[in-house]
Amino acid sequence: MIPRTALLAGALIHLALASAALAAADCPPLGRMPNYHAPAEAEMRAYDGFGFSVRKGDGTDEVEVRGRACRQSYAVKDGAQTASDLEIQSNYREQIRKAGGQVLYSDERTTTGKIAKGAEETWVRVYSQESEIEVMVIAKTPFKATLAKPAGDDHRLLGRMPSYSPQSPVEKKNFDEVQFTVVSGEESRDVAVQGAKHAVMYHLKPGAPQASPLEVQENYRAAIAGLGGQVLYADPHLLVGRLEQNGQAIWVRVYAQDDWIDLKVVEEKPFQATIQSPQAAALKSALDRQGRVALYVSFDPAKAVLKPDSTKTIAEVVKLLKENPGLKLAIEGHTDDIGAKPANEKLSRDRAAAVLEALAAAGIARDRLKSSGSGADKPAADNATSEGRAKNRRVELVKG
Fold first, then answer.
1. Torsion angles phi and psi, residue 389, rounded to 5
2. End-to-end distance of the chain based on CA atoms, in angstroms?
3. Dist CA 14 CA 126 (whole Å)
4. Residue 100 belongs to what H/E stretch?
5. Ranges in the chain annotated CATH 3.30.1330.60
């Protein structure tokens, strides 16, 4: 009887020969079992991500690796003998070791390996079910943005992936409503956003390389961040972000499959109270009647830096305080309920403090002022509507 180790050694030789003969259809550095064929071309992506199982102590961890990706599936040839999972996995584990790599995880049907050469790092996963084999290889590489500059039918702020072109007709409406998914605590929910709508569907150009949904998402995530915005929700196919320009909230929704991308942008209708600066007399009247008054001053997106167009409003508050030397003010920051609660609370505190600093810089004694932030805990209107969220993004002056 021939020992099992000898049988496996013979099979390992066959795998190496198959790799050399058919490397064009495989995912280097791995080959294929001799009785197996690839029904289709390997799926290649310039940038993608995959979770690899690795051993950690007595348990198992999952490590996400991103970079240049190749996926190939094999099926046993018609009439050929099916290999056992043990034979398949033993072959690939040996090939990983011969390539200078190490096996990081193995079970009856799965092998995870890593091959490191200098600064280069390649991760591989082999999954088998005797008659079928799936190979995933990712050469770890940093993300590089490839989104083109806006042109033609693109939205004025966001371009397109180079291998994709817009399909007609592009939908442009002066006023419409779109549902956007956001994270609320540990759950997600949809919020209605109203304003100017720009919707475009991009399709893969004939013969062009496909981008993975992850690559699409990372490109738009980088574009949103570059515009000072933040991501509010993300899953494997959907990305939602929001940014601000001149006091106006702009919402972005990107849904990506391999051969098409659906982009929707809504420039939320601006709240009218942000257009005109309140006068000192009107501020005094509101404080006398209600004990508080809301200010809608402009900040840099997701920051506590006052924009130049807030200068007139700050000047009126300074005038109010100078004309009423006995007046003391508590400055309270507030946000809408979009985004993480801790971030909103910090932003509200920081923005209130920024207003205090602006007043102090204009000569108002600090002992007449104090600041605090409540995040989204004290809404002035319904966060379910665009107008309500705009009213909630405010700084209030409270009579001391």
1. -65, -40
2. 95
3. 17
4. none
5. 273-399
**Pair of tokens at residue 153:** 């039918």
Residue written as tokens 């001799």?
A: 34
Tokens 């601006």, residue?
270
Q: Each residue's pLDDT tens digit in the chain (400 positions)?
A: 334 444 344 444 445 434 434 444 899 999 999 999 999 999 999 999 999 999 999 899 999 999 999 999 999 999 999 999 999 999 999 999 999 999 999 999 999 999 999 889 999 999 999 999 999 999 999 999 999 999 999 999 999 999 999 998 999 999 999 999 999 777 899 999 999 999 999 999 999 999 999 999 999 999 999 998 999 999 999 999 999 887 788 999 999 998 999 999 999 986 665 456 789 999 999 999 999 999 988 887 778 999 888 999 999 999 999 999 999 999 999 999 998 889 899 999 999 999 999 999 999 999 999 999 999 999 999 998 888 888 999 999 999 8
Q: Which of 74, 91, 82 is nearest to 15 (CA)?
A: 91
Write out the E strands in 129-259. Answer: 132-140, 164-184, 187-204, 230-234, 238-245, 248-256
Element (H, E) at 65: strand 59-76
Segments in the chain forming alpha helices (H): 4-21, 85-98, 213-226, 280-290, 311-323, 341-361, 386-392
Q: What residues have CB less than 8 Å from 304, skipping those under 6 apart?
A: 347, 350, 351, 353, 354
Q: Which two tokens stand for residue 386?
A: 């665009």
CATH number 3.40.50.10380 given to 273-399: no
Residue that the structure tokens 């006995």 belong to: 326
